[in-house]
């Protein structure tokens, strides 16, 4: 190459690959700007709005609202929180969230920003869920409208209602029998704010109803043929209970000092006992500890008033809960790792970013460092985790800018740039030596496969406490189909085989998706071997890490960009790069994005070669 040629090709390729967020991914980002199919951008928009109100960007520290975020015991017709919620709801709706989903998103994020879930003033009774719902203009409904997030299927709240009301009619939830009470006892202070209510009936009813409701949701999930991930059954169990039980009751001294323990806490307690959730959970980045029973009980209060969010609203809330370190244990979405999910799931950094802003008094650089650190630790492929975060944060900024998206971009920008640079350098060397873009893409995919095997085995070993080593023996399309579409895009029908060693014992699994998993689930094959479930789990985790790579397609676009900068026809460069990327070619779209990137790279390089006037 002539002097400076390599640098100009590198610059052109890097600039082209990052020209717009949509060229970084096969996920349909433009649709997400209006909430279609996912609420990730409305969540970022609401988080940006809350962050700007909590840390007001003008004036002195006295301007920020952090110390005025609570739902307070006041008779005033409007609270400082009303303004904060109203603005955040508007931001979420402008980003495409329907009113009921906007209310759910904003109430959830406001809770984690510092607002309490209730006021408890009898005449001017205000609760966070109701405030958000009214500002959003969503219709009032009951918890019957709730539905779990989608875990292949989703389960509405009906089983929780059925179980609770069957137990109520059988008088199994409390030893207090309403049939024996004299008139004028129930419904007044003699009951509700006295021994019978606060010491006996309310604690029993709240805890037992939530337990029964949660168990019913979990058994229903299993009956639908899906794993009973515990978070949503617990949330629905607590919500159905708080619709039944006196929501503002404070419990007797046996449960703690006056004002410390309420009916929602006992509902949360019953729910987490049934779901076997850990007693505490911790926010990523800050390690702040939340009492899980209080958290679930408080969300029972929020959800009972929120309206009727759709399944994508439930999925968004699950991803918001992925901001906890225990996300994988509690079944809280996918964006906490270790697998990199499609970009529509990437809400999990919003709560950590908000809490980190509180800790660092609005310093986005300190927040960015903390986000980068925990992302580097929690993912099988942390480089792609940060690339994905960068892509969705940049796309969100096309709709709503603020400190949350700024911190996420700062956390990921240099990692993304390094990822592109090293791929471009490899592509220049290979193409200059006569290799085709397809060979470069194949080489990059080979590297990622080996990396996922190595780092994935280490992460799985740490998670399970077993010594696991996994090597793929086959990764190709057509596990059971024969059509041309799935022959090209292997993610829709993946033929996956691998060798795995668990604590020194070797196993070979052939055709995971079409043979091994159905045989285990339907025929009971190898269920008597306690290692076999671990072998299936490990293969599923690492296979999905490879299948979901459509969120970041640098192994296709960067070779095409370099080829375009070096003069190859952009359409040919894009097609050849996708042809070679046998793993990154998991879903459609790479060819088109790569061709556009190659065209842009060619234009940039041509201008760089022109003499300066």
Would you kindly provide a written description of the structure presented here, covering whatever features stand out?
It is a single chain. This protein starts with a helix and ends with a helix. Helices cover 57% and strands 5% of the residues. It folds into three domains: 1-26 and 436-613, no CATH class; 28-138 and 306-433, no CATH class; 154-298, no CATH class. It has 613 residues and is mainly α. The chain has helices spanning 5-17, 29-32, 40-54, 80-94, 99-113, 128-136, 158-169, 189-192, 195-223, 231-244, 263-275, 292-305, 311-320, 327-330, 350-359, 364-378, 382-397, 403-432, 437-464, 484-488, 512-523, 530-547, 554-565, 570-580, 590-609; strands at 280-282, 289-291, 468-477, 494-502, 505-509. The strands form two sheets. It has a three-stranded antiparallel sheet. Strands 1-2 form a two-stranded antiparallel ribbon.
Tell me the strand percentage band.
under 5%
Q: Percent of residues in helical segments?
A: 55-70%
The SS-based structural class is mainly alpha
How many strands? Answer: 5
Please give the count of helices.
Answer: 25
Q: State the end-to-end CA separation.
A: 24 Å
Q: Average pLDDT across residues?
A: 93
Low-confidence stretches: none
The biggest sheet, with number of strands, parallel, antiparallel or mixed sense and barrel status, is: 3 strands, antiparallel
CA-based shape: globular
Brief characterization of the structure:
This protein is mainly α and 613 residues long. It folds into 3 domains: 1-26 and 436-613, no CATH class; 28-138 and 306-433, no CATH class; 154-298, no CATH class. Helices cover 57% and strands 5% of the residues.
């Amino acid at each position: 190459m002539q002097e400076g040629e390599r640098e100009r090709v590198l610059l052109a390729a890097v600039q082209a690959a990052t020209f717009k967020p949509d060229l970084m991914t096969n996920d349909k980002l433009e649709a997400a700007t209006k909430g279609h199919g996912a609420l990730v951008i409305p969540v970022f928009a609401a988080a940006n709005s809350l962050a700007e109100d909590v840390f007001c960007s003008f004036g002195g520290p006295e301007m920020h609202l952090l110390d005025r975020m609570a739902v307070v015991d006041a008779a005033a017709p409007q609270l400082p929180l009303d303004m904060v919620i109203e603005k955040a709801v508007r931001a979420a709706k402008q980003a495409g969230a329907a009113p009921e989903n906007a209310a759910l998103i904003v109430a959830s994020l406001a809770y984690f920003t510092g607002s309490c879930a209730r006021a408890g003033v009898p005449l001017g009774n205000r609760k966070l869920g109701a405030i958000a719902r009214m500002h959003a203009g969503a219709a009032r409904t009951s918890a019957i409208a709730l539905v779990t997030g989608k875990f292949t299927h989703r389960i509405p709240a009906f089983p929780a209602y059925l179980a609770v009301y069957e137990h109520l009619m059988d008088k199994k939830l409390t030893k207090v029998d309403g049939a024996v009470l004299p008139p004028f006892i129930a419904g007044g202070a003699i009951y509700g704010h006295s021994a019978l209510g606060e010491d006996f009936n309310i604690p029993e009813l709240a805890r037992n109803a939530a337990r029964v409701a949660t168990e019913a949701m979990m058994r229903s999930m299993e009956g639908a043929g899906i794993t009973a991930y515990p978070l949503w059954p617990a949330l629905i169990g607590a919500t159905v209970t708080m619709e039944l039980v006196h929501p503002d009751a404070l419990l007797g001294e046996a449960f703690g000092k006056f004002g410390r323990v309420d009916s929602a806490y006992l509902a949360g307690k019953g729910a987490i006992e049934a779901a076997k959730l850990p007693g505490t959970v911790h926010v990523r980045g800050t390690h702040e500890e939340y009492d899980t029973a209080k958290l679930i009980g408080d969300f029972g209060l929020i959800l009972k008033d929120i309206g009727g969010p759709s399944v994508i609203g439930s999925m968004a809330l699950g991803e918001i809960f992925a901001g906890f370190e225990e996300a994988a244990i509690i079944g809280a979405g996918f964006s906490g790792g270790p697998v990199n999910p499609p970009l529509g799931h990437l809400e999990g950094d919003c709560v950590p970013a908000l809490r980190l802003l509180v800790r660092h008094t609005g310093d986005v650089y300190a927040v960015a460092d903390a986000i980068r650190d925990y992302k580097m630790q929690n993912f099988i492929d942390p480089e792609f985790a940060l690339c994905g975060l960068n892509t969705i944060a940049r796309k969100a900024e096309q709709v709503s800018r603020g400190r949350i998206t700024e911190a996420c971009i700062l956390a990921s920008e240099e990692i993304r740039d390094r990822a592109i640079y090293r791929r471009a350098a490899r592509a220049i060397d290979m193409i200059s030596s006569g290799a085709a873009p397809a060979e470069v893409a194949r080489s990059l995919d080979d590297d990622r496969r080996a990396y996922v095997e190595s780092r994935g085995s280490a992460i799985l070993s740490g998670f399970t406490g077993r010594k696991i080593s996994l090597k793929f023996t086959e990764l190709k399309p057509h596990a059971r189909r024969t059509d041309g579409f799935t022959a090209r895009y292997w993610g829709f029908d993946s033929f996956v085989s691998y060798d795995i060693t668990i604590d020194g014992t070797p196993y070979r699994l052939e055709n995971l998706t079409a043979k091994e998993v159905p045989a285990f689930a339907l025929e009971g094959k190898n269920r008597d071997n306690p290692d076999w479930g671990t072998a299936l789990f490990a293969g599923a985790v690492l296979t999905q890490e490879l299948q979901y790579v459509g969120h970041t397609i640098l192994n296709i676009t960067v070779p095409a960009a370099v080829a375009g900068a070096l003069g190859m026809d952009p359409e040919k460069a894009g097609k050849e790069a996708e042809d070679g990327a046998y793993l990154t070619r998991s879903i459609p779209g790479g060819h088109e994005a790569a061709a556009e990137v190659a065209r842009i790279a060619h234009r940039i390089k041509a201008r760089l070669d022109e003499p300066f006037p």
